[in-house]
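Hey team,

Filing this mostly as a record. A colleague (T.K.) asked me to run one chain through the structure pipeline before their review meeting, and I want the input and output archived in the tracker in case anyone asks later how it was produced. No errors, nothing strange. Just documentation.

Input sequence:
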Amino acid sequence: MRQPLLHVSDVSKRFGDVVALEQVSLDIYEGDIIGLVGSNGAGKTTLLRLLAGVYRPSSGRVHLADDADVEQARARLGVVPENTGLYARLTAWENIRYHARIHGVPDDLAWKRTRYFAHHLQMEDALSRHTKGFSRGMRQKTALLRALVHAPEVLLLDEPTAGLDVTSARTVRELVRQLGEEGGTVIYSTHQLAEAQRVCNRIVIIHNGDVRADGTPEELLEQTNSTNLEDAYVALTRDAARQRHEDSKPLSKWARWWRSLFTSTTPQEVMEDE
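Output structure:
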């Protein structure tokens, strides 16, 4: 019998007058590869940030199987955000090693794990290169390696293939499938139904802050009496999608100056063309 790893219990999240999520409940089990599907502004990223402990719920609770609140157990999670946040002056391996040391992983073990996953992502030769010159695909792969190096119980991916070329996106999907075959647990945010169907064994449809469906692709088709997932999605989200609300503010003049002061130039000798 599969064991639950993470619980979302009646969670709501508000930003002022904006209700981003309303009474969401989910149980995430060991071996789940969950496709979190919804349009822009549906609440996918907000839910992922709650699962990662970056946000705290306005009401409800997010906790692990041992009842630890998720914000107190972040070391047990691996997170790949939409913006990778790599240190430009460090090599790919240095970025990964820094993250591993924060989590108390010895360098030799971190290197062993990094080489293993880098082989599957076809980027072993790039580990010694500075990330400033990396393409988006190479940055995304580096962020994946960084998230996996401390062997997390749950991997959270926010639009991991957005903006990637066909080859890079396929490589990322294959790695996620491999993690699932090895018993890993992944929550995979995407707005691409076809991608979710190819990669995931469970699909959660979120729309306007509500969970509209949760089940296998076959169960969603049966629930809506549909012959394909696109029709099922439309049937479950007939009400108009709300306008997307950004919770981040534009950078102030001081913040823009500070960022420009400490942002390095691209090292010419490490440009990556994927």
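Quick notes for T.K.: The first strand starts at residue 4 and ends at 15. The chain has nine helices and nine strands.
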